[in-house]
Amino acid sequence: MSDEKSFHLAIGSRFENIELVQLVLKDSLDQLGLDDDNRHWIDVAVREAVANAIKHGNLQDPAKQVHVDLALEGNEGHEDWLVIRVQDEGRGFDPAELEDPLAPENLLKPNGRGIFYMKSFMDDIQYGARPGGGTVVTLRKRLNPLEPDDPARPARTRERQA
Amino acid sequence: MKVNVRQRDGVTILDLKGKITIGVGDVALRNAVQDAINGGATKVVINLKDVTTIDSSGVGELVSAYTTATNRGAKLSLANLPSKVSDILQITQLITVFDVFDSEDEAVRSF
Predict the structure, then answer these.
(1) What are the percentages of helix, strand and coil residues in chain B, rounded to 5?
(2) Nearest-CA distance A36 → chain B (Å)
(3) pLDDT in tens, A62-97
(4) Distance from CA of B75 to the nearest CA of A (A)
(5) pLDDT in tens, B81-96
(6) Which of chain A's residues have a Cβ under 8 Å away from the Cβ of B55?
(7) Which residues lie below 8 Å from residue A41, measured CB to CB, with a gap of 6+?
(8) Which of A120, A146, B95, B97 has its CA 20 to 30 A from that of B76?
């Protein structure tokens, strides 16, 4: 892991603190040499994760914190994955209860798209329970892109390249 | 986010600038649209030319703006979508819901 790129940040549950996360994240993403598009979409995905942690996890209780960790994972000298973990101190949630924002009956709903965007912009996203209570969402982005026709590549990216 | 409201040929234009994101930009957008509709506007164009970032809350407010306008008998269009805004509406299949125009001129002429 490259220490100058990784970080741990703990913020109070206020929406304006999302901008703090963005500033620190931007610095790390700049150092990784990602192109503008990737930096923008990772920024949006993390923004969604932190907003969810503040709103749905911690219910905007400023005494509760949101923890954001960024790390590079892979073999020594070949860090293939950018891994961002966002943890809240809330009561947890059941991902099975999420509705499909593309279903016709949901298309004009004002909410319910955040996790869908996270999945669209990252290569992998996982939810779990945080030890001691709360939710941890892990967002992963492949740093060494696969060939355009590689089946492991997200479908949306494959389509856009076609 | 900043919102500038102006009139052009009987059309209310909302120029949005900056981030339409949770907690700040989304509320500003909601208030601007409601003020326009409550003020009697029946033709509204949201000019997104200077929007740098939009998140799911901002997208939700655009959807609410559209349904509010429609329910009140007004028409609402989007103009000058930056590619990132267009992409994010495309992914959730909303680009087909809105009346989207490449320029403000086209949007104004469409009513």
Answers:
(1) 40, 35, 25
(2) 11
(3) 899 999 999 999 876 677 899 999 999 998 888 888
(4) 16
(5) 999 999 999 999 999 9
(6) 44, 47-48, 51, 114, 117
(7) A121
(8) A120
In chain A, which residue's Cα lies nearest the Cα of B52? A40
Quote the CA–CA distance of A140 and A65 in Å, as a whole number. 22
Query: Where is B66: in which H helix or E strand?
Result: helix B56-71
Kindly provide the residue ranges of all beta strands, DSSP E only, lying in chain B, ordered along the sequence: 2-8, 11-20, 43-54, 75-79, 99-101
B-facing residues of A in 64-83 (CB < 8 A) are none
Q: What is the DSSP string of A102-127?
A: TSTTTTT-SS--HHHHHHHHSSEEEE
- Residue contacts between A and B (CB atoms, under 8 Å): 63
Determine the residue of chain B that is closest to A50 in CA distance: B22
Residues of chain A contacting residue B28, judged by C-beta atoms under 8 Å apart: none
Contact in structure between B1 and B30 (CB atoms under 8 Å): no
What is the ipTM for the molecules in this complex? 0.91
Q: Could you give the CA distance from residue A127 to residue A53 in angstroms, rounded to a whole number?
A: 12
Residue A40 touches chain B, beta carbons under 8 Å: yes
Q: What is the pTM of this model?
A: 0.89
CA torsion through residues B87, B93, B94, B100, sign? positive
CA distance A142 to A144: 6
- Residue B26 at interface with chain A, using a CB cutoff of 8 Å: no
- Of A84, A91, A94, A12, which is closest to residue A49 (Cα–Cα)? A84
